[in-house]
């Protein structure tokens, strides 16, 4: 008797839908919004601003008394600080923003840096050249005059400005700084473009006996220089070149890879030998995961079969794993190649490696001086370039399991910005090539969130903020969950800090960061181990709830416990290697999207999102803001490799990979405008969905692309100045006509005069919740018959520096993206897949026949 069909079996390739893509002109749809005046007396407000500005600027110094250095290309001027007014107490506004229009670029009146304040105001450092003072004062005066029947001039510039004040010596520094400390350290100076200005600033600094390193990081609007001196010396130099420097940061990072483990190795040589005899090496052309870490024990019997290369950023360091107590790079390599060794040690089946590993030592061993400059951005870019020179043709991803604690994750750092450049194929040498942006090599990189150390449970268990560089937009940021809760025995004096299938207590998140300015991080979770808690409530790591991996002391302790988000990053590397081995034809953007699409929350976490019936949880405890906060703690769940690689009959995944030109030069020949978008009339399984009627189904949409970063002082409050371009998606509403859908998305599309019926939102977040980042994901949950009407999707651009910075000559560049849509009816005897592929086949024949 034939076995019944199993509709849940994953044995079908994902479905490409590129044939359904239609390119259309895109114009941002204007929306009429009534403005409410924010000032009762504009004349008085203008007078106050003029008075504050005069006080903040002070008098222009006489030439003989002017301490400012003469630097070619830099106007003499003064920096003032402006602050916006706070929003009304009952306002739902995230913050009153510093207006983009506040700047007058032709006068070189520019915002150097902006930041969000706790009271929902924003502050900015504004550079005012001496020869632009009268101009700025005149514009404020005009703003205050009675406009009669005309629109008040410059209201969008000055209305929200609450205060203008002078800056102090430390205002350009990010974070607290003690100007009295005598310590001589490295500093990052963020210098405005052009690069020639940075070159002249180097000469000016050296002329006053400040050491400047030859290495630098280059972004479209900023060159990062590295100066060696005391805080007071650097601050004094900055005050002598006002307008050249947008901010100053301490150029060091406290690497915290959670290495202090003590003497805990398991020393099971017979296990290692037995397993190594079952291992088959990966194919020569198999993909590799390159670990940027502490080196590797290349002779380890479990590492050697899969190791494809081991190097160091500085050859004098050696390529071995220098970390004590079992190493760090070696156990990371063990997880990358095998995953958690515990299950393999309890098995007897052959193990065929699908992918290899590479090791690039990024961190100097003990006794070696720190890298100069101590910039992990510079070192990481150099390490990536060195690996690709050694083995140029490998299909490669990267894994970083270290983090720094110096910089707040609420804004990009030079390290996170450097990662974004690496991933986008936009490192300085690559960006200079005459290769189109979308054709440059893209790279997939997984980065750990950073770790929470042990301590009292009341302090450890609440989620803590990310560590640098895991705020990187383009990286796939890895948090931790755990299935491990078995205490050591005997005696049972300890208990697991969290139950199985919860967020690991080691893992960090982004729920404390501004959700309109920062990406949702982490995107996904992997096994990170648990902590054990004693009777007093103290939590700490324990080998019984850690992962098992290879150790660097091959002769003494070849197996060691490994835990925290370093372990999660290693598990993520293993997942990426397997996915790239299964689908080497797909882009890195697509691999990233498939990883997120395949993720599902463990049941205890899922219950925090799912209500009764077809709905997400609602009420005060489950607002859109609360749901986004939960996403920023748990990500989109734990990825499943079977789901990432293959579809099932009742769980189909649609994939598109496309190039798009988001912007173009406008009719005036001087400004950037929106250019094009993509529509997909989807091959939708309407018949199958209608047959399911009121059964609950889910849809997940993931849009993935890589931006080129523009690291400026304004990036913390203006995501559109950091990204080169942005993309968004929107789906056709259930009762919406195709024509109405198109006209709603773009003003350039013809309107048909109809309106969609109001409908209860089945989306977890909804399109308005998507702000920052280069990966956007949302979930739809509802009745199958309702999903049948959501049969079209649009991908359209939002602003970025390619559009706003026309002088960079990137406005006509093409971008590329991956779009993944999955429809799932788990447990249902319904063939969604076949209905979709039938429609795809018909469309391909239609296109072929013209």
TrEMBL record:
Pfam families linked to this entry: Peptidase_S8 (PF00082)
Annotated Peptidase S8/S53 domain residues: 286-637
BP terms from Gene Ontology: proteolysis
InterPro entries: Peptidase_S8/S53_dom, Peptidase_S8/S53_dom_sf, Y4bN_pept_dom
Domain of life: Bacteria
Molecular function GO labels: serine-type endopeptidase activity
Protein name: Peptidase S8/S53 domain-containing protein
């Amino acid at each position: 008797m034939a076995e019944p069909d199993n509709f849940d079996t994953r044995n079908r390739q994902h479905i490409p839908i590129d044939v359904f893509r239609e390119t259309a002109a895109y114009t941002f749809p204007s929306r009429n919004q009534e403005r409410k005046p924010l000032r009762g007396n504009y004349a008085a407000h203008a007078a106050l601003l003029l008075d504050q500005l005069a006080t903040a600027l002070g008098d222009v110094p006489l030439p003989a008394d002017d301490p400012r250095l003469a630097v070619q290309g830099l106007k003499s001027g003064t920096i003032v600080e402006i602050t916006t007014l706070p929003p009304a107490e009952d306002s739902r506004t995230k913050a009153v923003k510093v207006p983009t229009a506040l700047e007058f670029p032709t006068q070189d009146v520019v915002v150097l840096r902006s930041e969000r304040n706790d009271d929902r105001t924003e502050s900015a450092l504004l550079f005012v050249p001496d020869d632009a003072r009268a101009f700025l004062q005149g514009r404020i005066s005009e703003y205050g005059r009675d406009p009669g029947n005309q629109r008040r001039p410059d209201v969008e510039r000055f209305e929200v400005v609450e205060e203008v004040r002078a800056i102090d010596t430390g205002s350009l520094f990010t974070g607290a700084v003690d100007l009295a400390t005598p310590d001589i350290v490295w500093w990052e100076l963020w210098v405005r473009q052009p690069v020639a200005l940075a070159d002249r600033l180097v000469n000016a600094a050296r002329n006053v006996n400040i050491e400047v390193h030859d290495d630098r990081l280059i972004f479209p609007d900023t060159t990062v220089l590295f100066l060696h001196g005391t805080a007071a010396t650097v601050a004094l130099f900055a005050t002598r070149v006002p307008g050249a420097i947008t901010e100053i940061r301490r150029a060091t990072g406290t690497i915290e890879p959670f290495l202090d483990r003590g003497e805990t190795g398991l020393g099971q040589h017979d296990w290692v030998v037995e397993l190594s005899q079952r291992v088959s090496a990966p194919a020569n052309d198999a993909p590799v995961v390159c670990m940027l870490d502490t080196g590797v024990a290349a002779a380890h019997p479990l590492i050697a079969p899969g190791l494809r290369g081991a190097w160091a950023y500085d050859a004098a360091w050696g390529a071995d794993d220098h970390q004590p107590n079992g190493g760090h790079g070696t156990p990371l390599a063990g997880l990358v190649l095998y995953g958690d060794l515990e299950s393999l040690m309890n098995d007897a089946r052959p193990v065929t490696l699908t992918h290899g590993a590479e090791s690039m030592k990024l961190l100097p061993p003990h006794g070696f001086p720190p890298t100069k400059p101590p910039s992990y951005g510079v070192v990481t870019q150099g390490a990536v370039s060195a690996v690709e020179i050694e083995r140029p043709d490998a299909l490669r991803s990267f894994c970083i399991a270290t983090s720094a604690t110096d910089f707040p994750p609420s804004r990009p750092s030079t390290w996170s910005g450097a990662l974004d450049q690496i991933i986008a194929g936009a490192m300085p040498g690559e960006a200079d090539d005459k290769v189109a942006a979308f054709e440059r090599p893209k790279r997939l990189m997984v980065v750990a969130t950073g770790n929470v150390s042990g301590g009292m449970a009341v302090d450890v268990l609440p989620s803590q903020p990310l560590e640098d560089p895991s705020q990187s937009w383009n990286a796939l940021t890895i948090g931790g969950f755990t299935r491990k809760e078995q205490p050591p025995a005997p005696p049972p004096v300890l208990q697991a800090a969290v139950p199985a299938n919860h967020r690991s207590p080691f893992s960090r998140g982004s729920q404390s960061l501004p959700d309109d300015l920062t990406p949702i991080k982490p995107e996904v979770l992997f096994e990170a181990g648990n902590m054990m808690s004693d009777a007093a409530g103290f939590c700490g790591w324990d080998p019984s709830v850690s992962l098992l991996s290879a150790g660097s002391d091959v002769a003494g302790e070849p197996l060691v416990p490994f835990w925290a988000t370093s372990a999660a990053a290693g598990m993520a590397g293993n997942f990426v290697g397997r996915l790239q081995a299964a689908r080497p034809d797909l882009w890195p953007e697509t691999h990233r999207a498939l990883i997120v699409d395949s993720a599902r929350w463990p049941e205890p976490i899922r219950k925090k999102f799912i209500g009764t019936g077809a709905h997400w949880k609602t009420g005060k405890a489950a607002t859109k803001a609360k749901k986004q906060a939960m996403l920023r703690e748990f990500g989109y769940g734990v990825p499943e490799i079977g789901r990432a690689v293959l579809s099932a009959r009742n769980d189909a995944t649609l994939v598109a990979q496309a190039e798009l030109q988001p912007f173009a030069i406008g009719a005036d020949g001087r400004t950037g405008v929106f250019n094009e978008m993509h529509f997909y009339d989807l091959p939708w399984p309407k018949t199958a969905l209608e047959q399911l009627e009121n059964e609950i189904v889910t849809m997940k949409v993931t849009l993935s692309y890589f931006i080129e970063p523009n690291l400026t002082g304004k990036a913390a409050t203006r995501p559109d100045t950091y990204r080169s371009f942005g993309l968004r998606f929107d789906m056709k509403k259930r009762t919406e006509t195709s024509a109405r859908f198109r006209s709603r998305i773009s003003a350039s599309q013809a309107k048909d005069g109809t309106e969609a019926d109001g409908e209860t939102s089945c989306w977890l977040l909804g399109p308005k919740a998507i702000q920052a980042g280069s990966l956007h994901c949302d979930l739809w949950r509802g009745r199958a018959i309702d999903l049948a009407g959501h049969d079209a999707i649009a991908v359209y651009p939002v602003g970025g520096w390619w559009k706003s910075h026309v002088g960079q000559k990137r406005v006509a560049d093409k971008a590329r993206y991956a779009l993944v849509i999955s429809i799932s009816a788990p447990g249902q005897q319904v063939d969604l897949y076949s209905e979709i592929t039938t429609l795809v086949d018909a469309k391909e024949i239609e296109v072929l026949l013209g």
